[in-house]
Design goal:
Elements lengths: L11 H5 L4 E5 L5 E5 L2 H8 L4 E2 L31 H6 L8 H6 L1 H17 L3 E3 H18 L6 H11 L6 H20 L7 H10 L5 H32 L1 H8 L5 H12 L4 E6 L3 E3 L2 E3 L4 E5 H4 L34 H18 L4 E2 L21 E3 L2
Parallel strand pairs: 2-8
Antiparallel strand pairs: 1-2, 3-5, 4-10, 5-8, 6-7, 9-10
The structure holds protoporphyrin IX containing FE.
Length: about 375
Amino acid sequence: MTRECPYQPARGYTSLGADRASRVRLYDGTTAWFVHEHADVRALLTDPRVSADRTSPGYPQFAPRVELAHRPVRVFMFMDEPAHRDQRTRLTARFTVRFVASRRPHVERLVSTVLDRFAATGPEADLVSGYALPIASGMLSDLIGVPAEDVDRFHGWLRTLASPSPTAEAGIELVAYCEDLVHAKVSRPAGDTDLPSALARHLATGELGEQDVLAMCMLLLFAGHEATSNMISLGVYTLLRHPDQLARVRDGEVPLPTAVEELLRYLSVVDAIQRVAAADIHLGDVTIRRGDGIILPLSAANRDPGVFEDPETFDVARHPRRHVTFGYGPHQCLGQNLARLTLHTAIGALFDRLPDLRVETPTTPLAVNPANGVQGFTSLPVRWS
Ligand code: HEM
């Protein structure tokens, strides 16, 4: 379902809200269960009878799948236990609060470089292509160790893949590039500086193969890029549209990280996640049958009035600790600490440097992402003096 406003869940969700589970029809005529209450979403995301395997026939698709590589890369986000845990645990050390905090100087340098370039193009520019996308792809190129001379090409592929018309060519080139990069890094690891180098010791012991490392890198790129870039641009837009709330952050009444947590809840840029039942599950008076698709709208769970008081209000001081924007359970976002660091740095630095930033009064409706992807803008014209 399409959002009428980029920061509000689709209005159609309201009509589905009466029952704990409703049957919905998807674009291809198949049906799936729509389960929207916060408690049910969390329960299903931790239920071992619920599978993340998207190759399962009942897995609900929001749009036709476009293969962006010659060979499909199997990533652990779509695996169940124990295979999922086996792979994920190899990465957790690089995503802890402590490890991510040690990357702060890199993220600050990246944001400052992108901001210098962005500010120099003013007094009007596109916040998506000029700021949000280069920060997201810079954060990821740092993570997987893309050498400086390749960074522009790397950004170009990610930008094409995040555009409204991604091409298979960009996907194929990116996978081929990462294949060579991973091979070079694991053959001659550069200490512990980047992720493929750090994983090289698992190849030495035979616990992982080069294809596993490639799949992990591809997953990080696809999971991290669009979610982060859209959170930056939609986050900035939402603050500009709520000047009273922005003022509370600027005046120091509310710390920026607290406000970002509310932005995460309110915007729910990953609007919904998909699962498939691996066994019969009783939910209230319905039975979700083995093989049935399940849709879990995080945006609706994040507006559950039983969990969040006055959920439709954007309140930067809320402390919405139980939001499910990063999912929940075993597949909960691995990159959330890095995402938070990047958002705090990017949003804070932008408002510090360009205090009178505003959205350019649009003559046409703002260009928003399609309903089936990460929510946000394809471009966002802004202006400052
Ligand atoms: C604001 C930014 C982000 C949001 C809103 C977000 C959201 C999510 C959500 C909802 C999931 C769960 C998917 C599911 O259960 O099916 C997820 C998983 C994941 N995310 Fe993020 N993400 C963000 C940024 C990142 C970043 C920066 C990275 C890494 C660089 C990342 C890496 C991952 C990975 C690897 C998974 C799969 C975890 C697993 O299956 O065990 N994400 N993310």
